[in-house]
Amino acid sequence: MSPSGATTVAASHRHPIVVAEAVVTPADYLAFFEAARLGYYADCGFNYPGFEAREKLAFTLVELDLKLIAPARSGESVVAETRLVSATSSSIRFHQRLLRGELLLVDAKVRLTCSSLDGERLAPVPARFFRDCVARARFCARPWRTRLPEGRAGDSCVLEKERDFRKESRADRRETGIRILRRAADGERDAPQWPRPHAGDEGHLPPLQDDAGLPRRPARRLGYAWPPRGSGSRKRAANPWEAAIEAYGVEPFVKRCIDSVFRYQSEWEKLTDRIAFWVDLEQAYVTYHKRYVESVWWALSQLFEKGLLYQGHKVGWGGAQGGTALSSGEVGQGYKTVDDPSVYVSFPLKAAGDPLLDGASLLVWTTTPWTLPSNMYAAVGASYTYAVVDLDGRKLVIAEKLVEGFSKKIKKDATILGTVDGSKLVGLGYTAPFDLYAAEARGPIHTVIAADFVTLDSGTGVVHIAPAFGEDDHEAHRKLLAAHPDLPLFCAVKPDGAFVDELTAYAGRWVKDCDKEIQAELKARGILVFAEQYRHEYPFCWRADNDPLIQYARPAWYIRTTALNKEALANNAEVNWLPPHIKEGRFGDFLRNNVDWALSRERYWGTPLNVWINDVSGKMEAPSSVEAILAKNPKAFDHFHAAKAADPTLSEHLVVHKPWIDAVTWENPGEAGVYRRVSEVIDCWFDSGCMPFAQHGFPHHNHDAFKASFPADFISEAIDQTRGWFYSLLMTSTLIFDEETRAKSRRGRGIHAPDLVIDAVKMDFAVLAETDAVKAKPGTAFIAKEDLDGLDLLDGATVTLVGVDGAECRVTLATGKKLGRRVMVLAAAEQAALGVKVTGKPDVKPVEVPALPATERVLLWDRATPAPGADAFRWFFYASNPPWNATRHSLSNVRSFQKETLVKLRNVYSFFTIYANIDGWDPKADTTRNADGTLNVATLTELDRWILGELTATVAGVTAGLDGFDPYTPTQRLTDFVDALSNWYVRRSRDRFWASADDVEAAKNAAYGTLYTCLVTLAKLFAPFTPYLAEGIYQNLVGGSGVRGACESVHLASWPSVDQLPVRDDALATRMAAVRALVGLGREVRTNAKTKTRQPLRRAHLVVADRALRAELASYASLVAEELNVLEIAFPGDDEAGTFVTYKLKPNFRTLGQKGMGKEAQTLKKAMAALDDAGAAQLLTTLRRTEGFAAAGDRVGVVVLDARLDDELVREGVLREVKSAIQQVRKDRKLEFTARIALKIAVSDDALRGLFETRKEWLAGEVLASTLAVEAAPSSDSGYERIEANGVELFVQIA
């Protein structure tokens, strides 16, 4: 036997084993036996002294030495001893007899083996460690409830089964086993208090820590302790989380909280810089800093002095173990579907003065019978009609609309005796279901009240009100307090969730355990009308997932926001909200139904509430700063200074935080008692609401800086913060700066904005071996479809996985069914190659994956595809949606918006630089500008003037949008302009850029000058949205060029002004918009008719109903013909248009009738009938199908293409295809744009060869051929390439 109590034995196992034994209590044994039998200790990873973190220990139950009492046939008890080997049928049968109570366990000795899975020799294992493992089984796995058999005493017990272990998955069992082992090492306060080993004991295990260095959070199943307390009773343990923090130490806990504040600081700062988010990181404010906290204290002291800070009660969801309340986010994590009792109880009315109501009872429905002893009121809807019904001789009051449904539910007829308005019921007294607080009933207590929250969706229309256990209930009670300030609050439940001692039948018992007995009592007393089970969603503690939560009224500090509700509404009226409906809708409704702000929180980390209370007189004071406290007690912070002297690393800012601030006291001269701080911290939302002044330390510091920046001009946050940060900002400003806030116009804008890789397409994934639906496959990595789509990858894509120390392997991606986000099923071979293992947290959340150990995650990297970059990331969020709308973010969506606008802009910029460099164009020698730098319109073509007019309109639109704090609308204007610039201006101007003759030099200079102006202006307009792209364009076009007004950076340049651009010609803009629309329709017709773009057609008919516009468009016929690749353009007159289109207008009578507009429909029908074709064409166009023609139309007009082909058109199409093929060969050979070529074309078709001869000059110019020879067959020269165009075989040679 080693000094530690462990015995090392030889065994034939592959790895060395260690055997340990421990004597445990009977209850511990039973819990441990079941946990071990079901695999809770198998394969549990655990750090052990002398071993690497990656190693594991396997624990196996070997033998049990048991002493028990067995009843003999004679009726006497027999003490017997037995030894069982685990996992045998006899041990299981023995275990079953224990459960049935046939055997009574007195003593148990457990032997375990502990073997290393890595084959290393183990140090001796202390017996205490195994003893704690055994003892913790019932605390962590919690399968049983203990009860003491009648007539027995001591530690002997039998067990009642509470739930079935076998329903849990193997992964759940393994996870629980790991928790048990960690607890055995940590020695948490809620576990049996075994003697701790001395510092020199061999094998002592230090407390485990998580990745952040904090003690590991207690297991989710922790939270109950069941010492025998008599038949059927159990007692809740104290809050385990509070106990765990205190056991760890509040001081080190707070230090760890500070560390967590800055854990991701460097990552945040890198991302901020990378996405070009303009914010002063060097001057960041920190909400826990002393200066910030003192500003918050000042604000609270102002409220205290105004009488707006008071103490009351706050109803909130809390853990059944007692302790602090949970936030709404925490509550939302733990909902389960449960069956609860649904009871209908009668509350007998007292003298009503109405024969109909004499002897009647209110019929009340509740799913929380345990709250009935705390009943204070019954609520009805004042506007509802209630029926008095006869049910089995009882008169019951129920909402009239619910009588039929209730009768069907109970399968009995309820005869209506009469009806009464809900308002007539208000004020009537009734007899409460329990008389626990009957002596304290006064005023409106145990009377009917009116409440807005009463609905007729379910129940009876009469609501049981227990203000201690419901938010609506408590709010109704608080409204009554205004007229009856002395009203008590009935609460028959203690903070630990057990009934008070005064309720003797249920004293000390957990409330939800008493529901059935309360139901039985109500039935015995004749006031239970009906009962059933009600299935619904109910919240459970997310930390202890079998602990149901209860709502409970806890003492809390409030801010009386209702006192300034009118002022808050007035301030909201001055805010320009986007979207506008938030102002009077979501936010306005919230303000109009505002309740007092529940300020305090029961936490260890947060801004301490600066209220000190005299422990004798109860008087309160709220100092506004450390200086104010020192004025009362100069030695108030000596304890903190001593602590900092002992530990110089202690942050100076912690002087105002727990636990040091809790030790601050003072005494006032001539006043008995000591002032001590209340224990609470404040709601972090109040912290955030103080940001406008607290960031400056106001009023203790920086008065001028605060005055210059308050109130804000622009506020941007997510839409879910409407009732969060937006509310806290407005309400805090109203409360603290009410006069100043009203005096100054608030121009804040509520812009609500909603993770993508910026530098590379890569993402971390947690490693899984398999799931129920996905089995591992060598060479394949399975991920969720959502992750595949988000990374813009296809099923079957080959990617790189990166593991520990940069190890890599290539895998094929596949979609895994029912896989969660950010997890990957990976085969053992790939795991070994990467040096990773399966994560110990199979239910890992996506946000938790990056924090997993490096050995439990892999990096998926698509090296073949570049990431879109920061500009694309920014542009997507600006341009995809108005920022208050939901946005589906994915890599593919980012790339889509990037291609739509940013890639187009880059291509136009690339086009300009290529040809400007070829021609040596210099912006300083721009002949389109006057001496003062303004554009000389006389030197410009119509196309130049059109695009510059569109630029002027774009500058005006973007400026107006940004001045109005609207980022979305400007992006749409920019997108439209870039499309017009790329797909119209540049397309239509290519000939000018390519021209070399002197007679077109002026037109070329005008094209260069116009495009240069557009690009430089666009660089400035895009700068707020895509700062990197804008800077690149600006630096290349302006930086260092010596151009007038050039700046060091586009971000330092002046914003474009419409005064520096030509005035927009609206008539020209209208004509060009019509031309572009008709060309677009023509392209649509080609697509629908499946006619190739390069195939010329004979004729296009442009049907334009507007005669004036038709005449103006005639001059653009050649342009449209070129764009549509047709030989002729025709404009049919009014008499010819009927050949292609007809106009027929008819109202949608059904829709108009549904909207109650039947009469208006007839008037509309007559008005439509009176319209001529020109007028009707503005509303509706019907196309007439004609064989051989294809058409499309909109409000501008109709384009009809003659889609019939003849030999001439087919040969012309071949010519265009050959041109395109030659251009592709130039591109494939990477020839310079100006490179000239010698071209030979060999074609056997005589007619086609003749066409090439005829069009030789045109084709040579298009492909930059210095010579072009047309042959009947390829010559003996080599280097011919075969081309197929419209089914015709040709050969070309390019030299």
TrEMBL record:
Methionyl/Valyl/Leucyl/Isoleucyl-tRNA synthetase anticodon-binding domain boundaries: 944-1098
EC number per UniProt: 6.1.1.5
Key word Repressor present: no
Keywords, ordered alphabetically: Aminoacyl-tRNA synthetase, ATP-binding, Ligase, Nucleotide-binding, Protein biosynthesis
Reactions that this protein is recorded to catalyse: tRNA(Ile) + L-isoleucine + ATP = L-isoleucyl-tRNA(Ile) + AMP + diphosphate
The keyword Protein biosynthesis is annotated on this UniProt entry: yes
EC class of the enzyme, as a word: ligase
Thioesterase domain sequence ranges: 29-102
Span list, region Disordered: 187-216
UniProt superkingdom: Eukaryota
Domain Aminoacyl-tRNA synthetase class Ia, first and last residues per copy: 244-739
InterPro entries, alphabetized: aa-tRNA-synth_Ia, Anticodon_Ile_ABEc, HotDog_dom_sf, Ile-tRNA-ligase, Ile-tRNA-ligase_type2, M/V/L/I-tRNA-synth_anticd-bd, Rossmann-like_a/b/a_fold, Thioestr_dom
PANTHER family listed in its UniProt record: ISOLEUCINE--TRNA LIGASE, CYTOPLASMIC (PTHR42780:SF1), SOLEUCYL-TRNA SYNTHETASE (PTHR42780)
Family: Belongs to the class-I aminoacyl-tRNA synthetase family.
Protein name per Swiss-Prot or TrEMBL: isoleucine--tRNA ligase
The species this protein was found in: Daphnia magna
